[in-house]
Structure formats: structure tokens, C-alpha cells
Amino acid sequence: MRRNDRRDLGLLLLRLGTGGALAAHGAQKLFGWFGGHGIQGTGQFMESVGYVPGKASATAAGLAETGGGTLLALGLATPAAGAAAAGAMAGAAAVHAPNGFFNQGGGYEYAATLGLTAAGLAITGPGRLSVDHLLGHAVNRGWMIPAAFAATAAGTAVVVGARARRLRRAKEGEQEALFEEEYLE
């Protein structure tokens, strides 16, 4: 097997694994498949972790994961697909960051791994075993990589930043008791 063939096969495997996991993860949000909670349940969760409005946030995350994952697996519009998936995973990582890195403790390890792999595929490209290659890379041009990442970074910064401000305001509204109740009687 030639080096280029190995590279293309490796990119195909990365795309299928990462794209498949992302698409399944998004389908949990959108459709309630694979043990997910659908838009309604995911929307309630999104509200509880500071992404408001929850239903719109669940829809956006589900579309980025399902759409980005499916496109990555196919190797179609790879820069946009990888950037969208990476943005969704950055939002997920923000939720899990207070729990540390490792997934077993509720950390951001899984989201970071999926996001970085999706970003790497967006930059590297899909390889010859892809729909992008079949279409002559019409939606996989070099200029599309920085454009897709700039748009995704801007959108992600706005959404994650708004969540952080919302959580900070909620925490500021909480005041700890100066004295325990038993001493006040």
C-alpha cells in the first residue's frame, strides 16, 4: 500500500469515527435517538446550564453536531463541517470545564477530543476517499478554512460568553448567610 493510499484511508477512518460519533450525539439532542432526550429535554438541560433560550440552544447544538458530523463522515464541505462541530464541542467543553479534564469526573475530555479532531480534519482536508474529492473540492477551498473558523469562533465566543455572564450574574445574586440561623434566635 502506497503512502498516499494509507493517508487517505487513515483520514477516512478518522472522518467516519469522529463524524459518526458527532452525528449520533447530535441525533440524541434533535430526535431523542440513542437514549437522548430530544429537543424538549435537551432544551431544559441547556437552560439549566445557562444556555438560554434552551430549545434554540439545543437545536443549534444538535444541528452543528448532526450536520457537521454527517458532513465530516462523508468528507463534504469539510472546512465548514469541522469548524461547526468544533464550535459545538467548545460550547460543551465550557459546561464540563468546572469538573476538570477527565470524562470520568464529568470533565471536558470527550468534548475536547471530538472538537480538536473535527478541527484537525477541517484543516487537513478529507483526503481522496471523500465526496469533496469527487466534486473537485468545490466546497473545500483553502480560503474556506479561515472563513469557517472565523465565523465559528465569533459565534461560539458570543454564545459561550453570554452564558458565562449569565452564570456570573446568577452567582452574584446569591448571598451567603453571615450567621448561622441557630445564632440568630
Automatic annotation (TrEMBL):
UniProt record similarity statement: Belongs to the DoxX family.
Main location: membrane
Record flagged with keyword Ligase: no
Stated name of the protein: Putative oxidoreductase
Localization (cell): Cell membrane
Gene Ontology terms: cellular component: plasma membrane
Signal peptide: 1-23
TM ranges: 71-95, 107-123, 143-162
Keyword tags: Cell membrane, Membrane, Signal, Transmembrane, Transmembrane helix
Organism for this UniProt entry: Streptomyces paradoxus
